[in-house]
Design a protein that fits this description.
Flavoprotein; 16% strand; alpha/beta; 37% helix; Flavin_trans-like; Rossmann fold
Length: 179
């Protein structure tokens, strides 16, 4: 593990069950090179889409997907920023509705209470993107200060920006503040 030259703080990367999750290690590499201490959390289904061993080697930390038990120590330092990518229909809707039945969504709901900068990048089927609940959830998250990167006019296979663009969007959000 290389130590970044300039420390930016703690970045949570929340990963859901979508094909792009298989490449999230590329985001981790970019974020670490930019000075972030990265911690990866997956949804329970998202855990099957990532290479946890590779992510643990890159971050020096466990990939978490479940709540800890009372006898386990707290393992995550407070977040300075969060990227949720890829974010699924299910996670977006539960997060916006405050339904914390997974560790990942519970963590997102808690972090919002600390005014931590968050970038969310939904990746879902076109038919789900047209669902009324999804549109409401995106609007609610935006009202709560989340930077949502989602273009419904883009073709489904081109809706998710590159990992580099996502990280740059987070850096812009931190520098400029919410829009």
């Amino acid at each position: 593990m290389d130590v970044p030259a300039q420390a930016r703080g703690v970045l949570y990367v929340i990963v859901c069950a979508a094909p792009a999750a298989a490449d999230v290690h590329a985001l981790v590499v970019l974020a670490r090179a930019a000075g972030w201490q990265v911690h990866v959390v997956t949804t329970p289904m998202g855990a099957g889409f990532v290479n946890a061993k590779k992510l643990e080697r890159l971050t020096g930390d466990l990939v978490r997907s479940t709540y800890r038990t009372p006898d386990q120590p707290k393992g995550l330092p407070p977040a300075d920023a969060v990227i949720v990518a890829p974010a699924t229909f299910n996670t977006i809707n539960k997060w916006a509705g405050g339904i914390t039945d997974t560790f990942a969504v519970g963590l997102l709901c808690e972090v919002m209470g600390f005014d931590v900068p968050i970038v969310a990048v939904p990746l879902l089927k076109d038919v789900l993107a047209r669902h009324i609940a999804f549109g409401r959830s995106l609007a609610d998250l935006r009202r709560m200060g989340v930077r949502v990167l989602f273009d419904p006019a883009a073709p489904p296979n081109a809706r998710m920006p590159s990992w580099g663009q996502i990280l740059q969007e987070l850096h812009d959000l931190i520098e400029v503040g919410p829009s």
